[in-house]
């Protein structure tokens, strides 16, 4: 017969067995905590990435609008330059037509007044065209500057989106890795 010894410690296990199980549970809880934190970070990163993506879309729309304005400014500049050139040509033609000896000899008081008035009108037209050319140049320069600023902002947003995408991938790997460790269970 076998003798059963009852010392009151019938629940004795191998020494350190409870400690190993406790460490495994603590490790699993830590993994779950890390996974929850990684999921929360991933959600935040995804929100940030969505906001950056929306800003890129808005920048694309703005760039299209600015490109249209830039084309309009280029056309206005071209048209103003052509009007100025026409005014210069008209003024030069007027000066050539009224500068010869024959026109001076044949000039009467009324013809002289008419020539002076026409010369004054042509000079004023040339001055107005010069102002419109400068205004068109300024509008074009402003359009170019705004376009360049929008391109730079879009590039910066795209770089930020790439960074957020990499962070999202790392956070997703952390979530997946922590989920794999916790799914295998404690003590495995």
Characterise this structure:
With 188 residues, the protein is mainly α. It has a single domain, classed as Helix Hairpins (Orthogonal Bundle), CATH 1.10.287. The chain has helices at 17-97, 101-106, 109-183. Helix 1 (17-97) runs antiparallel to helix 3. The two termini are 39 Å apart. Mean pLDDT is 77; it is low at 1-5.
What is the fold's blueprint, element by element?
Elements: H1 17-97, H2 101-106, H3 109-183
Question: How many separate helices?
Answer: 3
Shape: rod-shaped
Query: Structural class, please?
Result: mainly alpha
Poorly predicted sequence stretches spanning 5 or more consecutive residues: 1-5
CATH architectural group: Orthogonal Bundle
Please report which band the strand proportion falls in: under 5%, 5-15%, 15-25%, 25-35%, 35-45% or over 45%. under 5%
Features:
mainly alpha; rod-shaped; 86% helix; 188 residues; single chain; 3 helices; Helix Hairpins; disordered N terminus
How would you briefly describe this protein structure?
The protein has helices spanning 17-97, 101-106, 109-183.
């Amino acid at each position: 017969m076998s003798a059963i010894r009852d010392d009151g410690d019938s629940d004795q296990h191998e020494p350190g067995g409870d400690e190993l199980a406790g460490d495994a549970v603590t490790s699993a809880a830590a993994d779950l905590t890390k996974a929850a934190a990684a999921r929360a970070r991933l959600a935040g990163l995804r929100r940030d990435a969505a906001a950056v993506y929306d800003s890129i879309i808005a920048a694309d729309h703005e760039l299209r609008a600015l490109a249209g304005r830039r084309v309009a400014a280029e056309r206005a500049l071209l048209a103003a330059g052509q009007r100025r050139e026409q005014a210069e040509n008209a003024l030069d033609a007027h000066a050539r037509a009224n500068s010869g000896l024959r026109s001076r000899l044949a000039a009467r008081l009324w013809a002289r007044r008419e020539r002076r008035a026409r010369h004054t009108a042509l000079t004023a037209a040339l001055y107005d065209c010069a102002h419109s050319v400068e205004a068109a140049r300024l509008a074009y320069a402003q359009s170019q500057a705004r376009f360049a600023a929008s391109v730079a902002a879009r590039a910066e947003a795209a770089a930020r989106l790439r960074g957020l995408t990499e962070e999202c991938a790392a956070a997703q790997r952390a979530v997946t890795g922590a989920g794999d460790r916790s799914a295998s269970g404690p003590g495995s």
